[in-house]
Design goal:
It contains 17 helices and 39 strands. The protein has 658 residues and is of the alpha+beta class. Helix 4 runs antiparallel to helix 5.
């Protein structure tokens, strides 16, 4: 009987396991690195154990330290979460020798399914549909070029080990093969300790649909429906939903039965996921099997009512599955959005810092948040940038989208950049709303990258002008200006180099009248100037906005739109035009570090002439290798960094000549 579980992970998944263990009356032990000493998962567990330095190899990836922690705390089982050691067969083998229970599948399943080449060959044996390709190890870039010619373009070079979008590159012509092979194998080596890659045909505009399976140690295997995971960026899932809008009952049964056949073929035990890609004609092909709990498991829990972590613990406890296939019912719809610490307008580069202000949208109906952060949490460069998962459920897909947009709009995180506005823009898009999605959709919709959009004239007049005027007036009133007691007050609202004359009249009925031109607004709000969320009623319609006080401006955000503004009384507004604007520095002669990280390789030298698009260097941050390329033709004046250097954000890496 499992009485105490050590969770060999961190962040939101550690908190998720703690939640179920507590429900089952099982004690928990959190392990942590020096960087995570005050993290949420450490505070929520019954006990905690320091592993070592921040670097994952010396803490969360150290098998010896994890096993020592189990012995020190007298834990009798380990839950690995996902990532880190969750699919490491060597780790599971050592646990077996130490007679420590592993809450996950058997060693053989991890070994075979963790090797994409072996797993694909086993899938063929189990009569599971597979993608055409070269099902063996690619020796070098010349070998890759030869195989590419045989298979034809486009193709995918993929790491044999691991997952999570790492060690994968799409190749569309022969010129891209060499760089793609080197980047994929290098990233695979650094992420999984295994540089092996293989090649398969790349299917254009596929949907990524996966089947959740659950198996015990007595040969019972069931499937819990599908999850649609087609909204991806850099092969990394960011939005998931269940069920899929294109999977019929017939297709669900076919995919589910093939997933079960594969699980039985490998003798699978515990929760696992069989991933497929589905083309426009509903043909489906095996992609890989993840021998662990998936990040997106909550959407399956929401539509089936089955706690997957609980089932994993019960299977590890040698209990038989009590759920039969006919017991699995799909009710309603669920969606998940992954919250990342990244900068969408800087090509989604990782962002680090401390959580300065944090307001969760957990007071809303049909909303679930699996989060690993809280006020004061440190967002480190050492780990994956995913912070939380916002999950909603509803009776249908359209209701879920509406609930998700509302929840994201009220999710307030400050201290570093995040992807919340980007997520809102996806949920608002026509193609997503219609369910017309595929794994390349974001590349199509955001060809030139993502930029924050200014509010439309309609939104300005309807929401932003009255809200900004109200907020500005509240601040001026708080400062006890002489005109506070006057019945009518005149002000100037300035944004985007526009100057609007605003008149404000206070009412004894608890609202204020704001006049702009011929438009009148009746505004009511209990908002205080130290609050990040602004609940406001404008002409009897309720809105929720986010507020920030910047150095010299105010800022309000509604959905994925923001407005920076100033609000002055009449006399101050007349002086505003004399204020000196700070000149922007010319940084065109420098390549600055877009994020803190480690230099993996430098591909240029002093005096070298380079062309636009040419590879300059590779920078590793948050477990991802980022290729930095030239944005224009130039000549290198000075290279200020070398391989393995640690760099800070905005550090000058390269200097260019005229």
């Amino acid at each position: 009987m499992i009485r105490k579980i050590l969770i060999a992970n961190r962040g939101e998944i550690a908190c998720r396991v703690i939640k179920t263990a507590r429900k089952m009356g099982i004690k928990t032990v959190a392990v942590y690195s020096e960087a995570d000493e005050y993290s949420k998962h450490v505070l929520e567990a019954d006990e905690s154990f320091l592993l070592g330095p921040a670097q994952a190899s010396e803490s969360y990836l150290s098998i010896k330290k994890i096993i020592d922690a189990v012995k020190e705390t007298n834990a009798d089982a380990i839950h690995p979460g996902y990532g880190f050691l969750s699919e490491n067969a060597q780790f599971v083998q050592k646990l077996f020798k130490e007679k420590i229970k592993f809450i996950g599948p058997n060693i053989e399943a991890i070994k075979i399914m963790g090797d994409k080449i072996k797993s694909k060959n086993l899938a063929i044996k189990a009569k599971v549909n597979t993608i055409p390709g070269f099902n063996d190890v690619i020796k070098n870039d010349n070998h890759a070029s030869e195989i590419a010619k045989d298979i034809g373009f486009p193709l995918m070079i993929k790491a044999s080990a691991g997952g999570g979008g790492k060690g994968m590159r799409i190749v569309r012509n022969n010129k891209e093969v060499k760089d793609a092979f080197q980047l994929a194998s290098s990233e695979a080596k650094s992420s999984f300790g295994d540089s092996r890659v293989f090649i398969e045909k790349y299917i254009e505009k596929p949907r990524h649909i996966e089947i959740q399976v659950l198996a015990d140690k007595f040969g019972n295997v069931i499937y819990l429906g599908e999850r649609e995971c087609s909204i991806q960026r850099r092969h990394q899932k960011i939005i998931e939903e269940a069920p899929s809008s294109v999977v019929s009952k017939k297709l669900r049964k076919e995919m589910g039965e093939q997933a079960v056949a594969l699980a039985k073929e490998v003798g699978y035990q515990s929760a696992g996921t069989v991933e497929f890609i589905v083309d426009s004609k509903s043909n489906f092909y095996f992609l890989e099997m993840n021998t662990r709990l998936q990040v997106e498991h909550p959407v399956t829990e929401e539509i089936t009512g089955i706690d997957l972590v609980e089932q994993m613990i019960k299977v590890a406890n040698d209990e038989k599955l009590k759920i039969k296939q006919q017991d699995v019912k799909i009710k309603g719809w669920a969606m998940e959005a992954r919250i990342y610490s990244e900068d969408p307008i800087r090509n989604f580069l990782p962002s680090v810092g401390r959580v300065k202000k944090y307001i969760e949208p957990i007071d809303k109906k049909n909303v679930r948040l699996d989060s690993g952060i809280m006020d004061g949490s440190e967002i480190s460069i050492n780990y994956d940038p995913m912070l939380a998962k916002l999950v909603v459920n509803g009776k249908n897909r359209k209701k879920c989208i509406s609930t998700m947009i509302d929840a994201l709009n009220s999710f307030y995180i400050r201290g570093f950049n995040n992807n919340i506005k980007f997520l809102i823009s996806i949920f608002k898009s026509d193609k997503f709303y219609k369910g017309d999605i595929h794994t390349g959709l974001l590349d199509e919709e955001y060809k030139d990258g993502y930029n924050y959009t200014d509010p439309s004239n309609k939104l300005l007049e309807k929401i932003f002008i009255p809200a900004a005027s109200f907020i500005g007036y509240k601040f001026l009133k708080q400062q006890n200006y002489n005109y506070v007691n006057q019945k009518e007050k005149f002000f100037t609202l300035i944004f985007n180099k526009k100057r609007l004359s605003i008149q404000i009249k206070e009412s004894k009925k608890g609202f204020i009248k704001i006049l702009y031109g011929n438009i009148q607004f009746r505004v009511k709000s209990l908002w205080k100037t130290n609050e990040g969320l602004v609940y406001i009623t404008i002409n009897k319609k309720k809105y929720l906005l986010q507020f920030d006080k910047l150095n010299n401006q105010f800022s309000i955000t509604y959905l994925d739109h923001s407005l920076n503004f100033n609000f002055y009384d009449k006399s101050t507004a007349n002086l505003e035009k004399y204020m000196i604007e700070e000149e922007e520095k010319d940084l065109s002669k420098f390549l600055l570090a877009p994020m803190p990280g480690k230099i993996v390789s430098v591909n240029v030298k002093d005096g070298q002439k380079i062309k636009s698009g040419e590879n300059i260097l590779v920078l590793e941050a948050m477990k991802m290798e980022n290729l930095i390329t030239a944005t224009k033709d130039a000549k290198i004046k000075k290279v200020n960094i070398k391989e393995n250097d640690a760099v800070e954000v905005d550090q000058v890496l390269i200097e260019f000549d005229e």
